[in-house]
Design goal:
Layout: H1 3-27, H2 35-65, H3 71-95, H4 100-121, H5 127-148, H6 153-167, H7 169-179, H8 185-211, H9 221-237
Helix pairs in contact: 1-4, 1-5, 1-6, 1-7, 2-5, 2-8, 2-9, 3-8, 4-5, 4-7, 4-8, 5-9
């Protein structure tokens, strides 16, 4: 792979990761008026992330993941991912930690960054997956910040810096996928399917229930927009 393409991969992974602190910064603006619009915006942003996550599963992770494994292996990895994310959810609920959304965000960002690197190493296009990671990281960063909600400006700045440092995991794990895991397509397929199962569990357990608003019908359109981004990217790359 040419040096320029590696640089493009790193830029894509970094931009996708920086969507997390961007979402956190967006969450600091609490004065959206009128009040109903602020609520609709929050629910719409969550729906946008859910749509992007489902798009990533349906258009990238599952189609690429099933290429090099048997039906039994695919089922095992997919269901295993869902069960692992469920176990993490139960653990975080028992701990009652404010960082559960943060953990959920990292648990899908890391395998997707690895997938981005392996896709690049195998000569595939990285634009679609990179865009989808960015689109889903924005609302996840938004929600994670709101969940951890700093009480003062100093803590707020510290939390956003943590989000920025987390964004650097994107290029780091994409390089891991590019230089190492791309040599093991079966392992990579397993990681993709594992992530796909876990992501779907997270969407229906944590995100989708928060989207609906009584007597408001616009927020779910954010999910349509999130999936549409993936669909357009898929068609352009194809």
């Amino acid at each position: 792979m040419p040096q320029g393409d590696i640089i493009s991969l790193l830029i894509m992974a970094t931009v996708a990761g920086l969507a997390m602190p961007a979402g956190a910064i967006l969450a600091t603006f609490k004065g959206v008026q009128p009040k109903w619009l602020e609520k609709e915006l929050r629910h719409g942003i969550l729906a946008l992330g859910a749509g992007a996550l489902i798009s990533a599963v349906g258009l990238v992770l599952v189609p690429e993941g099933i290429k090099d494994v048997s039906v039994f292996a695919a089922i095992s990895c997919f269901v295993g991912g869902a069960l692992a994310f469920m176990a993490l959810d139960i653990y975080l609920a028992k701990k009652k930690t404010a960082g559960s959304q943060l953990a959920a965000m990292l648990s899908d960002f890391v395998p997707e960054s690895i997938a981005l690197g392996t896709t690049a190493a195998l000569g595939g296009g990285t634009m679609l997956l990179g865009i989808l990671i960015a689109v889903q990281n924005l609302p996840e960063g938004f929600n994670a910040y709101r969940e951890m909600l700093p009480k003062n400006k100093r803590r707020s700045t510290k939390l956003i810096i943590i989000f920025i440092l987390m964004a650097l995991l994107g290029p780091l794990f994409s390089l891991l996928g590019f230089y190492y895991l791309a040599q093991f397509p079966v392992i990579m397929s397993g990681i993709m399917l594992f992530a796909a199962g876990g992501i779907l569990y997270s969407v229906f357990q944590d995100i989708a229930p928060q989207i609906r608003m009584e007597n408001h019908w616009l927020p779910p359109l954010g999910g349509i927009l999130g999936f549409l981004v993936g669909m357009i990217g898929f068609m352009l790359e194809g």
